[in-house]
Amino acid sequence: MKKAAASKNVWLTGEPSMDEVVSDPIVRQLMIRDGVTPAALHAVVAQAKSHFEAKTHFSARSATRARSPQGSAADCQAA
Q: Which of the residues 19, 34, 35, 75 could staple to 71 if both were Cys, CB 3.0 to 4.6 A apart?
């Protein structure tokens, strides 16, 4: 019983892991209804994460160049 109470607190104190979300009975029922497997959900989340990280990395590099009055060494070589 203690374990169930502890796992419920994760939802209140922070973001649950994908495994915790997928193991939730209501989420499982919705996934079954919609024909979504845990593997398919993990694949979509991994793809979105990869896409987000690539965009974030690109944006951070662009912001650094925009703030630098002299640009980067690569910018100088390209000119």
A: 75
Cα(1)–Cα(40) distance, integer angstroms: 31
pLDDT tens, residue by residue, 38-74: 999 999 999 999 998 888 766 656 655 555 555 555 5
Alpha-carbon distance 4 to 2, whole Å? 5
Please give the helix or strand (H or E) that residue 49 lies within, else none: helix 38-67
| CA-wise closest residue to 21 among 4, 1, 47, 41 | 41
- Give the range of the structural domain holding residue 39, as residue numbers without chain letter: 18-66
Residue 35 within any structural domain of the chain: yes
On the 0-12 / 13-18 / 19+ scale of CB atoms within 10 A, 38 is middle
Q: What is the pTM of this model?
A: 0.52
> Does 24 map to a domain?
yes
